[in-house]
Description:
The chain is of the alpha+beta class. It has 26 helices and 36 strands. The strands form ten sheets. Strands 8, 9, 10, 11, 12, 13 and 17 form a seven-stranded mixed beta sheet that branches. Helix 1 (6-20) packs across helix 24 (757-766), helix 3 (83-92) packs across helix 4 (96-111) and helix 21 (692-713) packs antiparallel against helix 22. It starts with 5 loop residues before the first helix and ends with a strand. 40% of the residues are buried. The chain binds one RNA strand through helix 7, helix 10, strand 18, strand 19 and helix 17.
Amino acid sequence: MPRYDPSRSEPKWQAAWDEAGVFTARHDESRPKYYVLEMFPYPSGRIHMGHVRNYTMGDVVARYKLAQGFSVLHPMGWDAFGMPAENAAMEQGGHPADWTYANIADMREQMKPMGLSIDWSREFATCDPEYYGQQQAMFLDFLDAGLVYRKNAVVNWDPVDQTVLANEQVIEGRGWRSGAEVERRELTQWFFRISDYAGELLAALDGLDKWPEKVRLMQQNWIGRSQGLQFAFSTVGAPEGFERLEVFSTRPDTLLGASFAAISADHPLARHLERHDDDVAAFVAECRHLGTSEEALETAEKKGLDTGIKVLHPFDNSVELPVYIANFILMDYGTGAIFGVPAHDQRDLDFARKYGLDVIEVFEPRDAPLTVEDEAYVPPKTEPVRYVRPLAGGERQTGDEAIGAAIAFCEENGVGHGVTQYRLRDWGLSRQRYWGCPIPVVHCDTCGVVPERKENLPIELPRDVSFDQPGNPLDRHPSWAHCACPKCGGEARRETDTMDTFVDSSWYYARFTAPRAPTPTDPVETDYWMNVDQYIGGIEHAILHLLYSRFFARAMHRTGHLPAKAVEPFDALFTQGMVTHEVYYTRDNRGRPVYHLPDDVDKDARRLKATGEAVEVIGNAKMSKSKKNVVDPVNIISAFGADTARWFILSDSPPERDVEWTEAGAEAAFRHLSRVWRIATEVVESDTPASEADAELNKAVHRAIHEVTEGIEGFAFNKSIATLYALTNTVAKSKAGAEAKPAAMRVMAQLMSPMVPHLAEEVWALMGGEGLVAQADWPRADPAMLVDEEIVLPIQINGKRRSEIAVPRDAPREEVEKRALADDAVIKALQGAAPKKLIVVPGRIINVVV
RNA sequence: GCGGGUGUGGCGGAACGGUAGACGCGAGGGUCUCAAAAACCCUUUCCGAAAGGAGUGUCGGUUCGAAUCCGACCACCCGCACCA
Length: 850
């Protein structure tokens, strides 16, 4: 008997789909459209199991929607700018463009055998001048619309390599290559005014009802709207020009508990003092070695320096608070200055304990006096507390009430005003790097900063650059930056900064709707295809990429590049989990782990194949090169076929959770698919006559249609697959006849086709299905087939399951109660007494309380 | 540190507040075979001979009933604005 051979069957069906143009996205006004998008990959050169999982999920949705009659857009492209290409050029020589395009070619070749329903005719890379030129055009429109501006901002500066470092290149405060202590340095940089949209981006989250709740929550917290009081302290002993110190606080109700004020090391006052005071200069310099990430600031030991300056308490001039420079105050948030209330803020308390500052309680729990030791009292703002030092409002009130009263009181007394603050900062897009989209502006000595003319776009990156020294090659290129001023025609210099790669990924979804248009988008195409109906990607993008894209879509709408309906570009979002694998390691003579590839390990014996040395095993960890626990999809596909990889990656775990890749699981998936194929070949040869088993099988088929469909709709592909396993067992055991069985197998082929499209075609063809299963209509379950006449009700006694009874589906409650009380287990438990309570949940359960 | 999430048999997991463990893996037993592989059949949460009891990270709460809801804690994962 011939065996299931995916290496022959899969390429055959892929060719058939290509020939029929099944996956070409067609703008067809007569049909509803469906746009499925997976987050596009960075072209590292190798696909990994995470990609397989991501694209398989998208493919299931795309094929399912196609079968439902939608005109489907399912494109693929490459997030191709970024640091790895420059790092490769530095390490191995060569050019980032060559490295990137070679990687793209490799990855495309690795992806094609997966049999994805992608319209490859729309493919592009963000490093194509055709793409980034349109991005430059939009940048100019944004500039024109006042959505972009320049200001100073700090970067991580490596003083040895003389280059700007990304946060990930700063390791424990040092440059990753040079090992030098990183400094913060200020540069003039371009910013998008995303904070202008903070309120709108926040409010619109409510409408994203097909996004995961957790993502909306994360974005909400990230945008971080807060109401507070902004006011100015009068200073004592401050230098000229610093008579007042503006502070912002979300807890003005605790003002009478303030015992110090603190300013950021980047605050203008700190910068002033730095120039005249060596101690301040030394402390501020220390703060600036911390790196620029919020994480670095927050996890560093909290430190401060007393400036000797005091501020007067606005409601009690006899109280003078010391002013500290502190390493945990952010210049970007609020005014870069705060007052500290140690009793009701843990960080302030730690700071106060360290520097011997007063701890003054402002409020207490309602029913107990409060003495703050090492733990600040920070109840939820909705909880009523007793104010012992109220600024305004009653003695007993919630934090929220007290804050409102405090702001009103302060405003009445001319001490500051209530303000709405957002945590969200403007989006700095300048990067001092080569491999990115050039910012299309020119610096002219006479005209200043001048936008490039659109007809000169794209401003292309020069080819002749070298990476043999650190820093931005554009900066040291002999001629590239020299140009004529678009305004006066005089000699001018191009901006050598390029754009953050988040810009590239903030609008690619729109470009896919018209990838070759001579403008960034084509209104006819965006009108038909937008929005993305289903977006799929990793949770790690929950905040930045998705928030930036939401902003960008709004900016594109404002500049006429997207219709109003597309300001929220992703209707539904699904975040999938990681692919993990066991990690195998031995230890070197110093006890450090030495990792080994899965292929080199005998998993049963837990020994290295080569030496027999025992290996230690850690359970599932994210696949990573450093731990060598990677499984190459290419090897899996060549050994078992794409369908096996697809089936396994979908089968075990729910899509939102991590899935552990195991060799045993992959082999089992292959065995199952072989079995389905074998059953199909047996069904063909069968001549069993029709019987009662036909109806039974038919019922099982309809149930399966219902469950598989529900699984796909609910992104529970693992449940759809469990149903298909069960259906396979049912068909295998069924005594149904030579008409019913092929019919069942045809439906099974349809139900399988989103997950294992090649095998589905094979089975479909064997069963005499018409045309391609990829083009067949999705089957419908007959509702009448889904109900049972008799149901089994479990009986609980005191909440524990003790028995069960079978009753007609629509039996009246009295009848069910009567039968339940007649049950042996119930009689035994009651011992002649009447039940205390008898709960009947129709169609569900009976609970007898004795 | 802050924000968000996850936690169920040996393993991956299933379970509108209603029979905990569907489906799969692994393991054990069997059929077929000279033998093996493949295939097929059966068993498989734990303790217990059984009756029965225990059980969804830990501790507490709400409920007739909690894996599910609430509170506290523990562990792990994601993000923290220049990684993509």
